[in-house]
Every structure is written in structure tokens, then in C-alpha cells.
Amino acid sequence: MAEAAQGPRRALPPPGRGPRFGPVDREKTCPLLLRVFTKTGSHHTNADFAVRGKEPKDEVQIYTWKDATLRELTDLVKEVAPAARRRNARLSFAFVYPDKHGHFVVREVGKTLSNGNGKLDDGKVLAELGFQIGDYLDVAIM
């Protein structure tokens, strides 16, 4: 069973393909709890997540859906992290999940700009980036 945790789901989808899922009806679908860890300057390391129950202290819990865009998540992070509100702030998003050996891995999946100019990966949604319920989200604010 641990073998399946790493599997091909962690590879980024091929470029040029549309989403492999339908939009979520947010009126009828219960949101998921997303554990978000923020850090200024860089991402947390794999070692920061090595011991269950001793994850980094800068955690925010967000209720959202698998079709949430990185822009939506950027706006939510800006509400709780003052550093993310700076005009020139860049946010880098990474999924944190256990590999096939049970060790947590931090994998970058996209970037946004705080002010929304330049777009970057704003329109990417969690599901098409390979997010699975139970993954954490690590956000580096630069």
C-alpha cells in the first residue's frame, strides 16, 4: 500500500492537456481541509515534516476544493501572512506528501505574484497539479 503513495500521481500532467476532472459544484460538494504552511524566504525542508505532530508551527488551515486555483489560494494566504501582501511578493507553492518509504517530500508545483500581474501559474488548480486529499501545501513567500 505504501508503494502506491508515490506512484505516477506525483508526476506533473503533460503540458497542453486540459484538466482531467470536471468542475466542482461548490454548493453541493463539501470542502476539504487543507493544511497550509507558510515560510518567508524559502520552502520548508523535507526534514521539517519528518515527525508527525511536530510539523512547522506556521500552519493555517483552509477549507477549499480540489478545483481551487493558485490565485484563490494566494488571496487566502495574503489574508493571514502579512509578508504575502507586499506588492513585489512572489509565492511559490509546493505539495508535501509521503513518498513510498513514508518520508515526506516537498515538491514545488507553481508560482504566483501577490499583486496578480504577470499571471505565472494563477489559473492552475490543485487537482490538475496532482493534489490528493491529505497532502499539505507549503507556501514560500519571497
UniProtKB/TrEMBL annotation:
Residues 1-26 are annotated as: Disordered. Keywords: Repressor, Transcription, Transcription regulation. GO terms for cellular component: nucleus. InterPro entries: SAP18, SAP18_sf. It comes from the Eukaryota. GO terms for molecular function: transcription corepressor activity. Belongs to the SAP18 family. PANTHER family: HISTONE DEACETYLASE COMPLEX SUBUNIT SAP18, SAP18. This is 18 kDa Sin3-associated polypeptide.
